[in-house]
Amino acid sequence: MRSLSVTHARAISILAITLLGAAIAGAKDGRDFAGFYSLSDVTEVGDRIQVTFQLQLFNYSGTPIEGAVVALHSSAPESGAIARFAPISVWPSGKDVVLIQTITVARAEFERWRGHAHPNIFVGYQDLDGQAKRQPAQLNQRAQLP
User: Where are the domains of the chain?
Assistant: First the structure.
């Protein structure tokens, strides 16, 4: 009876290790898009701030993307997009894009960016299976972009 319990426990352990290995092998580090942003030409417009937003993003997804839409979202939970950049027709894997746009944001949002928070950038696209994806981009601030 004891050997049956040991055999059963061993089979469960092997199954668990196999499933865990498959999950780890299929998982990425979650950083398909990363890059830098820069803010310039800051102008106060009442209680809002107008700023030139420059963004350099890299595609680390491992696949080329067609028709990607980059959107800037507020840091407030469940908020919509503050701005959308022009769609990127073709974005090869491992390559960067530079997007520049003048935007207007709430003063509080701008102050968060000047503090320790980074803008919330999301990349929307369809994967190779045709599934709609929306992935966050990891950003760091730079004083100036190329």
Answer: 33-141
In a 3-state reduction of DSSP, which class is residue 29?
coil
> Hey, is 18 helix, strand or coil?
helix
User: In this structure, how many other beta carbons lie within 10 angstroms of the beta carbon of residue 92?
Assistant: 11
User: How far does CA 82 lie from the centroid of its chain?
Assistant: 16
**Phi-psi map region of 62: left, alpha, beta (phi>0 left; psi -120 to 50 alpha):** left
Two structure tokens written together for 119: 């803008």
d(CA 76, CA 59) in angstroms, rounded, equals 26
The vertex-15 CA angle with 12 and 18, nearest 5°, equals: 150
Between β-strands 48-59 and 81-84, what pairing exists: parallel, antiparallel or unpaired?
A: unpaired
Q: List, for residues 62-114, the tens digit of each pLDDT value.
A: 999 999 999 999 887 767 899 999 999 999 999 999 999 999 999 999 999 98
Read off the pLDDT of residues 34-62 as tens digits, 9 standing for 90 and up. 999 999 999 999 999 999 999 999 999 99
Per-residue pLDDT reduced to its tens digit, 110-141? 999 988 889 999 999 998 888 999 999 999 98
Q: Write the class of the CATH domain 33-141.
A: mainly beta
